[in-house]
Design brief:
single chain, mainly alpha, 17 helices, about 65% helix, about 0% strand
């Protein structure tokens, strides 16, 4: 165990992760109703959703990545390198592979519904292994799991170094820097600088491991989440600067929307980079403010939180497919758009909860396929410290 490691659970990370997943439910429900391109669309759309979702899009996944980086720091505290890699494979690769053959294909089927006699007729096209959109093989919304696995491997040498005694001096200097006036803005400059270097050459967000600009952009959130929580005293700095970070997030938000409202005919090349600056700034400062205010508002346990922690990952894996299953029959109905919106997210929530309670949670095979621990291995009475730290935080690293 690393010397000085705190034997405490940071409940605010659990709550923030829960909030991010709930936002994801509403966000992907909104994709059925806004004017952006998506797999299936309602017969009536709303530009109001565009405005709201544009801002949510900038920080919802980065928040999850920061929390995942923090969870990785705590999980590595009691694991060897080999044990860590084995755990990442079980928790990330198995659900990803399962999802690509079972969870994601219905989404592609609904998108090409008119081309097949039935789902049974469609599914063999998955085994042709032709990548989407030309074919039916894809990870769709599970790209996050694939990228998280890549980040976990690529960043491992840095993670191990930051846990070594030789990193003590570096972390002490970093703490002093973060206490300064510029503080966490140094991280923002690194993110913007990386996009200045890579985004002109990799401008598109494809989620297929070829969009290097976005890979680095999201990867830095994951890395910075680990770095922030590996330095003792940084949480106190986040707490003391929470109001400043919130003010900065609010001040950069109008700049974000100003750039966002510029016609998208200019959204390539230099304009895309100009847009990226206020977009990243408002997202980063808002995430920092959440990490600060979360310590005062959310750092408390509850029975509800214990239940949510276990079920959030399966819910994430299921939610987009279930959204399409619920929304598809409504797509051409002449119903009020907001009635449909509420029916879709409520129906999705109920179905996902039912699947989790009835099919996933009780059975070890299903638990493994959805990235959960088998029931028989969930209690480790011989090592209560390990239970309190590792099992408490590994959920936050998905």
């Amino acid at each position: 165990m690393e010397v000085g490691m705190k034997k405490e659970r940071l409940y605010e990370l659990d709550w923030l992760r829960t909030i991010a997943i709930v936002i994801l439910l509403f966000f992907h429900t909104g994709m059925f109703f806004n004017t952006w391109g998506w797999h299936i669309k309602n017969n009536d759309t709303s530009t109001i959703l565009n405005v709201i979702m544009a801002w949510l899009h900038e920080w919802r996944m980065p928040l999850l990545l920061v929390i995942s980086g923090a969870g990785t720091y705590f999980a590595l505290g009691f694991r060897s390198k080999g044990s860590y890699l084995k755990e990442r494979g079980k928790r990330l690769l198995i659900p990803l592979i399962f999802g690509m053959f079972v969870i994601v294909p219905p989404q592609i089927y609904f998108e090409h519904y008119s081309e097949y006699a039935s789902y049974v007729d469609f599914w063999p096209s998955v085994l042709q292994f032709v990548p989407y959109p030309e074919g039916s093989f894809s990870w769709h919304h599970l790209w996050f799991i694939a990228y998280l696995f890549v980040y976990s491997l690529v960043c491992l040498p840095v993670f191990l170094y930051l846990r070594s005694d030789s990193a003590r001096g570096l972390k002490s200097r970093l703490l002093e820097v973060l206490k300064g006036k510029i503080g966490f803005t140094w991280f923002l400059l690194a993110m913007v600088g990386s996009q200045f270097l890579f985004r002109p050459f990799f401008p598109e967000q494809k989620h297929d491991l070829t969009d290097l600009g976005y890979i680095i952009h999201y990867g830095l959130y994951f890395l910075f989440g680990y770095v922030i929580f590996s330095v003792e005293g940084v949480r106190e700095v986040l707490l003391s600067k929470r109001r400043t970070h919130l003010i900065l997030a609010i001040c950069t938000l109008p700049l974000f929307y100003l750039a966002w409202f510029i016609p998208y005919t200019l959204s390539v090349g230099p304009y895309d980079f100009i847009f990226h600056i206020p977009a990243t700034a408002t997202a980063w400062y808002f995430i920092l403010s959440l990490l600060g205010y979360g310590q005062t508002w959310l750092n408390r346990s509850s029975n509800l939180l214990k239940i949510l922690n276990e079920g959030l990952y399966p819910f994430y894996i299921l939610h987009q497919t279930v959204i399409m299953i619920v929304a598809f029959p409504m797509r051409n109905l002449e119903w009020n758009i907001w009635l449909k919106f509420n029916l879709v997210w409520v129906g999705t929530l109920i179905i996902c909860l039912a699947l989790y309670v009835v099919l996933i949670r009780p059975f070890n095979l299903c638990r493994i396929l959805f990235g959960m621990k088998p029931r028989a291995k969930r209690q480790d009475v011989k090592n209560p410290v390990r239970m309190s730290v590792v099992e408490a935080h590994e959920a936050t690293s998905l």
